[in-house]
Amino acid sequence: DTGVSQDPRHKITKRGQNVTFRCDPISEHNRLYWYRQTLGQGPEFLTYFQNEAQLEKSRLLSDRFSAERPKGSFSTLEIQRTEQGDSAMYLCASSPIQGAGVAFFGQGTRLTVV
Amino acid sequence: AQSVTQPDIHITVSEGASLELRCNYSYGATPYLFWYVQSPGQGLQLLLKYFSGDTLVQGIKGFEAEFKRSQSSFNLRKPSVHWSDAAEYFCAVGGNGYGNTGKLIFGQGTTLQVKP
After folding, report:
1. In the predicted model, what is the mean pLDDT of residues B41-66?
2. Which residues of B touch A51 (CB under 8 A)?
3. What is the mean pLDDT of residues B81-89?
4. Whole-number mean pLDDT of chain A?
5. Would B12 disulfide with which of A105, A113, B61, B113, CB 3.0-4.6 Å?
């Protein structure tokens, strides 16, 4: 068990470009979460999956954001037409259903939009 | 509305001194409660959690927290701080019971600085 891994760790992109992040959860975990963390703030919930089903999306997740979890394994988060306000740390977490909210977090992807 | 408040944005303590980080929450019922720690550039590591039962919970690295229902608080404590404890600390709440999604609501965080 290597924990939750995220790729890339850092991404610098120009405004208007599309970016995609990947998250590999702990293998036996059914649930997968995406959070966004801006400087000086706590993480904010974006969306979550139970197996391959996306069950909840925050209003923070605008139409430019899309997340997938094909086959209930890894997940991707795509941001289209990036804006400077998208600059943040994107955190992925996973948990078993029985874990009652005990989420294990990856190290995050730091996105900088220039 | 559900929310978590960490009143202290930044705290500085001397190495060896005791520590208490405050956390207050607003939630419809008694939630699950968590403390996470984040070192610079890193993800979040779970320190401890409260689900039910004994209101004083022990965690890793010598941390403990006490749930006080009457005050809607879940303060984190450590009797003697080490320089390696310097980090950012987040209090979080999650749903309790059937239908719990595991989604967490985080506080703003408290940055701990440790003086030698």
Report:
1. 92
2. none
3. 96
4. 93
5. B113
- Please state the φ and ψ torsions of residue A13, each to the nearest 5 degrees: -140, 160
Interval B34-46: pLDDT, tens:
999 999 878 899 9
d(CA B32, CA B95) in angstroms, rounded, equals 6
Euclidean distance between CA atoms B46 and A4, whole angstroms: 13
Give dist(CA B54, CA A62) in Å, integer.
Answer: 41
Best B35, B49, B104 residue to mutate vs chain A (most A CBs within 10 Å) = B104
Residue A100 to residue B103, Cβ atoms within 8 A: no
Q: Which residues on A lie below 8 Å from B36 (Cβ)? A: 105
